[in-house]
Fold this protein.
Amino acid sequence: MKPSMPDSRPAALASFFVLVILLAACASPSSRISLEAPTARNDVVGGIYDAADENAEPVTLENLPRSERFWPHQIQLVEDWRPEGFEGDFGWGMGVVIEVDDARRVRVDFSRFGKHWIPAHVTDIVERANRIRLGESAKFKPNLVLALGNRLLDPTGRTLAESSVDLLDQNAFVLVFADPRAASFPELVATLSPLFGRAGLHCVLLPQGGHPDFHVWKAAHDAGWQGSFLLDRFSPAYSEGFLDDPERLPWIEVRSPEGRRVWQGDVGDADAIEDAFGS
């Protein structure tokens, strides 16, 4: 007879809840988003979004993480950087900015060359940010707003329709990575329901599982999802860009209109998500 093995599930479960608590605490007071603050809509002049503010402090590597208003949509490599183990040409070195973290790394989408965290100093992001600050370069919309624009569908109606939510009027986005056809999805929706309809906050489902839009609409509609959801053809690439661990699902991230990650964690504690919002 084989010797019995100790049950590791309680320890694993305890570690999981510790992880959730730590993740919930990652939204420090200085990084919280105020849902009552003026939105990017206030920066639209004559129908054109204008991020310029020549009176703002110059952007440097040190303050780059908190200078999100001036984060450019694209950057260019200025040093011969390549992903570890990558051989051959690395394209033209041009990529789309997804986010900047507190370690001054930039998450960049290099298209067919993949999505990578790279040191900010090997790019021209600071130079481009300062050009935006001074009004020398245009920035069409906040980065996440630009990424989501015209790519969201509304599951609340009786037919599939494009979302009519004005993304420029939002101060924060709750990105939910989940399979809408999973048995647990209605419970997830019920947990997040206190967030639905809050001014300045919009919930976006990034469907997992490879389901076509119609099936996502049906599942989200039946479950009472009150936000929008991302088109099926964009969800895999966007999920790859946002998620640190694509195997840890369902998952929630609270991000600013520029894509700054304010909070992330498991979907089981909606109260913890409130830590992302402050005055």
The CA atoms of residues 78 and 269 lie 43 Å apart. Residues 9-24 form the longest helix (16 residues).
